């Protein structure tokens, strides 16, 4: 469970300033340790499901709580959420991964490929172009649809990317520029002792989705002929 993390985030949402943060640093540090311990328990069990993630430590999968203030008018110093991603090759690798987002009233388990670099996006689109039936089978499986519905449509282009035809049977899928799925969590779910088991069930359902993208990245050196 992540009760301390949720408690900290609920308070931070109403007190997002450095003075409050420093006065409550012990609560922050307790929440940091709680989330890290949760991930340290989760990662080996996820490795039994997807061996490609290798051996990783929870602290290396967590994102910083400090916001990047360089290019925004909003100068609140901290994120109102905690998040982590587990990927083959580590948090900064180009591969698709397994994501956890903890936020008061807006928590979810997610994953997929978020804003890939052009070379990797091209590789994924080419794989969809040639293997769209396999990809469609992943998306249309009953268990996948039960957990996720469909990939987030907000990451979809209005027009076809250059080099692809609207007549292609996977034209709708080729328009995606990020491939993200989400499974929502209630605050009560974060307090449940079976949160790790639920997270692993969601990640297991997501595995074929991630594997499709990661195979595309591994295969991108091959020459594709459209």
Describe this structure in words.
By secondary structure, this protein is α+β, with helices and mostly antiparallel strands. The chain has a single domain (3-219), classed as BirA Bifunctional Protein, domain 2 (2-Layer Sandwich). Helices cover 49% and strands 12% of the residues. It contains nine helices and four strands. The protein has a four-stranded antiparallel sheet. A hairpin with a 3-residue loop joins strand 2 and strand 3 (107-113). Helix 1 (3-14) packs across helix 3 (25-49), helix 3 packs across helix 9 (195-219) and helix 5 packs across helix 9 (195-219). The longest helix is centred in the N-terminal third of the chain and has 25 residues, at 25-49. The mean pLDDT is 95.
């Amino acid at each position: 469970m992540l009760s301390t993390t949720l408690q900290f985030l609920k308070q931070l949402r109403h007190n997002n300033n450095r003075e409050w943060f420093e006065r409550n640093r012990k609560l922050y540090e307790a929440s940091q340790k709680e989330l890290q311990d949760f991930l340290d328990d989760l990662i080996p069990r996820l490795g039994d499901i997807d061996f490609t993630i290798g051996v990783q430590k929870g602290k290396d999968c967590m994102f910083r709580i400090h916001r990047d203030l360089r290019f925004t008018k909003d100068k609140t110093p901290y994120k109102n959420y905690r998040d982590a991603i587990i990927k083959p090759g580590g948090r900064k690798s180009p591969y698709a991964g397994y994501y956890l987002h903890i936020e008061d009233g807006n928590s979810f388990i997610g994953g997929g490929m978020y804003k890939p670099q052009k070379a990797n996006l091209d590789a994924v689109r080419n794989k969809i172009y040639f293997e769209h039936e396999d990809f469609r089978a992943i998306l249309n499986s009953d268990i996948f649809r039960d957990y996720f519905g469909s990939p987030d449509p907000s990451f979809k282009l209005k027009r076809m990317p250059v080099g692809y035809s609207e007549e292609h049977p996977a034209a709708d899928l080729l328009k995606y520029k990020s491939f993200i799925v989400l499974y929502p969590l209630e605050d009560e779910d974060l307090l449940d002792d079976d949160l790790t088991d639920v997270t692993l069930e969601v990640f297991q359902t997501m595995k074929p989705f991630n594997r499709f993208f990661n195979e595309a990245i591994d295969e991108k050196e091959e020459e594709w002929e459209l």
